[in-house]
Amino acid sequence: MDNTALTALQYGFDTFYFLICGALVMWMAAGFAMLESGLVRAKNTTEILTKNVALYATASVMYLLVGYYIMYSSPEGGILPSLGFLIGDENTSEAVLAGGDDAPYYSARSDFFFQIVFAATCMSIVSGAVAERMKLWAFLAFAVVMTGFIYPIQGFWKWGGGFLNEAGFLDFAGSGVVHMAGASAALAGVLLLGARKGKYGPNGQVNAIPGANLPLATLGTFILWMGWFGFNGGSQLKMSTIEDANAVAQVFTNTNMAAAGGLIVALIVARLLFGKADLTMALNGALAGLVAITAEPLTPSALQATLIGGVGGALVVFSILGLDKVKIDDPVGAISVHGVVGIWGILAVCLTNEDASLGAQLLGIVSIFAWVFIASLIVWSIIKAVIGLRVSEEEEYEGVDIAECGMEAYPEFTGKK
């Protein structure tokens, strides 16, 4: 096979791999929808499903219009991004076959699709944290700004070659750029929104509000676990060489082992604290392990990945309990899973990657959190002033399904809590 044919074959193979990984990450949207709808009360199911499917469509359109340009067409080493529109031209055959280090090795459209699903994942994190009391259209208005501007700007700082990348900040697949960013936006919204009615009582009492469908939440977790192989594996960007193929296999292995470690440790910690095996903590433990390994799923050994995930599983249990103590109401534990454990994942890079700098990792944490939290707080505040964030007390009691969507997810069941 001559070099031209080999190059064309590799280009096609890497493009196909990239698209399949993107499809796996898109499938994570279903995982978030199932997880969140399983962890809320039955009377709020339709609305949260509507949010999840609508935010994916919103993210797709906004990332097409402005987000992708901001993230990947801004000046290298910069802080302020360039503002532009649409996604540019596809690679030509001449450019691909020219060879050399600058020749593209996968379709530009496959890259755009892969980046869309990451933007949507970031916004999905916000959905669960503000569940059961936020107005649907307030959430979607925020999704427009988050996926079109807030997320792409900090994404440019690292993956688009901005100042964090120049400073040596390492985040392989997005413990910070995706997960901590989503949690930071969620935290800003929750602080303005307030807790659900009845969640906290006098004298620091915390009242459990069980989810309506734990089989659905478990299914959602398995879907997310599966989708994460595309999330981390696709971030290798190619696999048409022996070295890249081996790297992808290591990333898949480490991703799986970190999830397993997170679940087992969270289950054990919950048993020690509560005397029972807590399914919701176990599910969040698996997700915490996945978030923890996302910043660096390549350089750890499989055992190291298991331990990194295990630390994430322990952290998420204590974080969920700690947020309840300070009356930050997060129905699905998203801020803990993606925010607190996202920070751990960024710091854990220093344990296995010799190129990592603690200073650069801390700079990334502070920069991403400060930008996303402050920008989100401003946007949430504007939305609150214009249309309001929260449904009325009566609508919250009746359920946001009827108030916001005019239908129930389980109409044959009339009992409400």
UniProtKB/TrEMBL annotation:
Keywords: Ammonia transport, Membrane, Transmembrane, Transmembrane helix, Transport. Residues 18-410 form the Ammonium transporter AmtB-like domain. One of its GO terms (cellular component) is plasma membrane. It comes from Ectopseudomonas oleovorans. It is a multi-pass membrane protein. One of its GO terms (biological process) is ammonium homeostasis. Pfam families: Ammonium_transp (PF00909). GO terms for molecular function: ammonium channel activity. This is Ammonium transporter. It comes from the Bacteria.
